[in-house]
Amino acid sequence: xxxxxxxxxxxYLESREATYKGxxxxxxxxxxxxNYVSYHLMPVYGCPELLKDASPGLMKRMxxxxxxxxxxxxxxxxxxxxxxxxxxxNKFKTLKYL
Length: 98
Hints:
Helices cover about 30% and strands about 40% of the residues. The chain has helices at about 40-45, 55-60, 75-95; strands at about 1-5, 10-20, 25-30, 35-40, 60-65, 65-70.
């Protein structure tokens, strides 16, 4: 994947090759806002079944269909997000989006 940045507060990953409608596939992003940090994970939008085993704590952080907001460091939830990100990566590889 390729790391992209539009400014110091926003970084995202996308596929290196055009894999979806002639464009690179967006995978994940981190955006620092004024009051919280958002983590966007496109695989959970396209494949909501990835969330079937998500903890209530992680689901409480979810805003919309693919965004998780945090106001403080939460190591257990970050570890869960890491596992969810890996599962999303594997799913997108299977679908040939990455």
